[in-house]
Amino acid sequence: MQQRPRRRRSLVALTAALDRATTQSAKARAHYDLALFHDNNGREAQAIPHYREALALGIDPGLEAEAFAWMASSLFKTGSHTEATSSAHQALGLTDDPSLKRFLVRLLRRIDRAMNER
């Protein structure tokens, strides 16, 4: 499993990269990078729309499972448990990476516990 990159890029630079993106693929990657930036800085609610846009635009297949996984984590942290479950299952269906699968199984357990506590 790839770790979430902790790039030292600024929000200004990432937003500029999105503005400069001319292809659907480049826009998808720029949204994904913005999502990671917000996610890594504790702004999950701001990350979610960027994950969604990256996926809608067709993020590189090599990043698709991670995008669904990180989005599931952000959705869980923002209280959207049903959507988080769906996103985690989508990620599970897309990956063969054992460490990503372990992360997702643990996340699904946490989501299940949170939903049962309601």
How would you describe the overall organization of this protein?
The protein is mostly helical and 118 residues long. Helix content is 77%, strand content 0%. Helix 3 (44-57) runs antiparallel to helix 4 and helix 4 (61-77) runs parallel beside helix 6.
**Over all CA atoms, what is the radius of gyration?**
14 Å
* Range of strand content: under 5%
Profile the largest sheet: none
- Element pattern in H and E: HHHHHH
- Tell me the total number of β-strands: 0
Structural class: mainly alpha
Task: List its traits.
77% helix, mainly alpha, 6 helices, globular, single chain, 118 residues
Short description:
By secondary structure, the chain is an all-alpha fold. 77% of the residues lie in helices and 0% in strands.
How do the strands and helices of this protein lay out in sequence?
Blueprint (H helix, E strand, L loop, with lengths): L10 H10 L3 H17 L3 H14 L3 H17 L3 H14 L3 H19 L2
Helix pairs in contact: 1-2, 2-3, 3-4, 4-5, 4-6, 5-6
